[in-house]
Amino acid sequence: MEEVDTIIIATLRDVGCGFDESVVSLINFSAAMVVEACVRCLRVILPDFNCPASMPEVMSARYRMCSTLANACQELGYQGEIGYQTFLYSSVKEWRKLLMFLLEKLPREAVQAADEPTGARMVLNRRISAELSAAITSSWTPPFCKRHGLVLRKGHWQREGGAGCHGYHSSDVRAPEGTGDISARIPKDVLRYYSSHMRFVPAQPRVRRDVLASLLERNASEVAAQQEWEAEWNTQGLTSRLSEEEYRARKRQRLKKKLTEQLTSSLRQGSASASAALGAASDLQTILNSFTDKLSAGVQGTGSRFQHAEKLQFAKEEEVPMQVEEATEEELQQQREQEVASLQEQLSVLTAQLEALELGRKKFSASMQQMMERELEQGGQNKDEEEAYKVKKKTHDLLPNADENMRKLKELVQGSADRLTKLSAKWEEVRGPLVESEETRLLGEVGRLRSRMKEVADETRQKESLYKQLVTEYEQLSKGQSRVSYTRRILEIVANIQKQKEDIGRSLPTLARYSHSMLHYHFITHVSLALEIS
């Protein structure tokens, strides 16, 4: 039966049942799983069958649903005894019989599709085979009847032939970076560039048909870069015992240093003016600027082939190239001191400007605070004046028709007075019972308090009389007795108690013997009476 259960479960999964991998037999089935399996099978067998695959929580709805399933199975020709109890309270044997019947009723196409492998590769192969079969069996269409190779087939537009094909040409496309991470902080200028100036990806290539190739190339480059980074991290990054951020920063610094050294060494081989400029440069940006100036100067100094030939032809033989005198160490030191002094002077000027700006900022902040306070005060005054203006405007609007407005105002006042009178009468109607109930409650509370006061007064008098009596007894007690007399009295009481205990201990055996003899006597008496009666 285990093999049968395995086949049944595999077929049900192919039909659409989402069972867990841990379910390997019908013993693991529950009523909900059986209902889902039956519903899935009936949907395949009967396309018009409409029933939810999940069992409802209400018991009455479960009964109705299971009764519907039982009727559907009977209409299909199920010979066994079936009802709502078959799905809810039946045994594994009945479930197996029912599921085998439903699987036998499945269409042959569904069974064949369920028997075939469902891997991604097999699905792709089947789709390719279906497309090729459809292309072979379809009628031939002349090229001039197809625009860009498009043809309508089975209600869908498809591309056919090579008319719509073009070369694979990619261009560099850029997309916003870091916008998907909410925690990342992106500068406002970058966000402004992304939202206002950066073109959409489909509009970046010069030719629109190169969009797909550009996206594929961008994705391939990102995948290759990620794979290279993972390989480098697994081989070198893990051995460095650094985090990914630290390793990237270290690699960036090392690359920057190496590039600086190479540019410096290449520029030192140039002219003395470029070397002097590089001596004052300390960062990569200055070196790059010097390198760019050198290249631009070189470009400006270049000429055509005819100009070079003319210069060589008419050059003087006695002309001797000018030699550049190298600066001594003292001159270099003096130049450095002058540069330091000029930089210090610039620093002092910038510091003074910064202090002045800071002072101006503080003044501006104070004035802005004053302006804000004044604005708030002015806003309050504006609100008051607006209210007064509204009142005056309404009054002014009423002046042209003063008599009519006065009459309306009097009617309004009279109506308000009448309404106030009615409300007062209603309030008196409600207020009378409330006052009476409150007075009754207060009178009852006062009565309870008075009775309680009497009880407390009586109890106080009793306590006072008891106190006086105790004071009198205390005064009558002899005050000559000492602690020794009380101790002696306690010892006498203890001795009497010990003596009584010994007397009781001596009397217990005698009492026990007497009780035993009395019981024996009563037993014999009862036995003799019983014999005489019999």
Give an overview of the whole structure.
With 534 residues, the chain is mostly helical. Among the domains are: 2-116; 188-237, no CATH class; 247-297, no CATH class; 401-476; 489-534. Helix content is 72%, strand content 1%. The chain has 16 helices and two strands. It has helices at 2-15, 31-45, 59-76, 84-88, 92-104, 108-115, 120-137, 188-197, 211-237, 244-267, 272-280, 284-301, 305-313, 329-398, 402-476, 483-533, and strands at 150-153, 156-159. It has a two-stranded antiparallel sheet with strand order 1-2. Strand 1 and strand 2 (156-159) form a beta hairpin. The longest helix is centred in the last third of the chain and has 75 residues, at 402-476. The chain is extended. The two termini are 80 Å apart. Mean pLDDT is 78; it is low at 274-282 and 294-326.
First-last Cα distance: 80 Å
Q: Helical element count?
A: 16
Which whole number gives the mean pLDDT?
78
Order of helices and strands: HHHHHHHEEHHHHHHHHH
Q: Mind telling me the C-alpha Rg?
A: 56 Å
Q: Walk across the major sheet and give the strand order.
A: 1-2
Let me know the largest β-sheet: 2 strands, antiparallel
Unreliable spans:
274-282, 294-326
Number of strands: 2
Q: Label the overall shape.
A: extended
Assign the structural class, choosing from mainly alpha, mainly beta, alpha/beta, alpha+beta, or little secondary structure: mainly alpha
Helix content: over 70%
- Percentage of β-strand residues: under 5%
InterPro entries: CCDC22, CCDC22_CC, CCDC22_N
Coiled coil: 333-360
Pfam family, one: CCDC22_N
Family: Belongs to the CCDC22 family.
